Amino acid sequence: PVTWILLLFTWTGKGKFWVTVAVGLNLLNKFVFVVNPYFLKAFYAPLLVWAINSVLKRTTRRRRPSTANPEIIALVKEEPLMSFPSSHAGSTFSFFFILLWWKFPEAGIFGVWAAVVSFSRLYLGVHFLTDVLVGILVG
What we know:
This protein starts with a helix and ends with a helix. It has helices spanning 2-11, 15-31, 37-41, 44-60, 65-68, 87-101, 107-123, 129-138. Helix content is 68%, strand content 0%. By secondary structure, it is mainly α.
């Protein structure tokens, strides 16, 4: 059950999830009810982190733990050469940090979520600790 839960958390750190939530919230904001404008603007932070991390990943081309060490078994399929830094950690923490900076009332919840997403990357065997830590720093 822990693996399944952490797979779900890791999925919420993917770009497809970010885009879906951002579009959904913008549609809700336009047609149903008003969403906090700062919350909507916070979705730009993960986009910026993704761009920065894309350059860093292509520059460093660090192998993932499971390809660097055959004894490590990844519990989720990922691109073998794109480990450093963790975009999941960077994007989720950037979202949290910007909400925290703007004193968004529920920022703490997003901090816990970002921490669990980051931990899931380690647990699932697709990142080294330094990948996650640098991802958080970029965030």
